Q: What sequence folds into this?
C-alpha cells in the first residue's frame, strides 16, 4: 500500500519558537533528540542559514521516525517590485 504525507510548517513561527524557552517542550517533540543541538546551532545563525538548519533538522527527524523519503520544498511569495522616483521639481515660481 502506497502512503503519502504532505506536511508543512510556517518557518517564521518555528524559527521564533526554537529559541524561546516557553516552547521548549513542543520543539523537543518536533525535533526529538536533536532539539538541544539545534538550539545551540541556530543561536549563532541568522536569516537563510538559520532557516536551512531548521529545515534540515526537521527533515532528518521525519526521515528517521516517520518516513524513509523526505522531500523538502519551499513556497516563495512573489512580490512585485516597487519603484520609487526621487525626482525633485526644479520649476521656478513665476511672479504673477
A:
Amino acid at each position: 500500500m502506497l502512503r503519502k504525507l504532505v506536511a508543512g510548517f510556517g518557518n517564521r513561527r518555528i524559527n521564533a519558537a526554537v529559541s524561546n524557552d516557553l516552547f521548549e517542550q513542543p520543539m523537543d517533540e518536533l525535533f526529538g533528540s536533536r532539539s538541544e543541538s539545534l538550539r545551540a546551532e541556530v543561536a549563532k545563525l541568522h536569516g537563510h542559514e538559520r532557516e536551512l538548519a531548521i529545515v534540515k533538522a526537521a527533515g532528518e527527524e521525519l526521515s528517521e521516525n516517520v518516513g524513509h523519503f523526505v522531500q523538502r520544498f519551499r513556497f516563495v511569495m512573489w512580490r512585485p517590485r516597487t519603484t520609487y522616483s526621487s525626482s525633485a521639481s526644479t520649476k521656478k515660481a513665476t511672479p504673477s
Notes: Residues 87 and 93 are 17 Å apart (CA to CA). The first helix runs from residue 11 to 18.
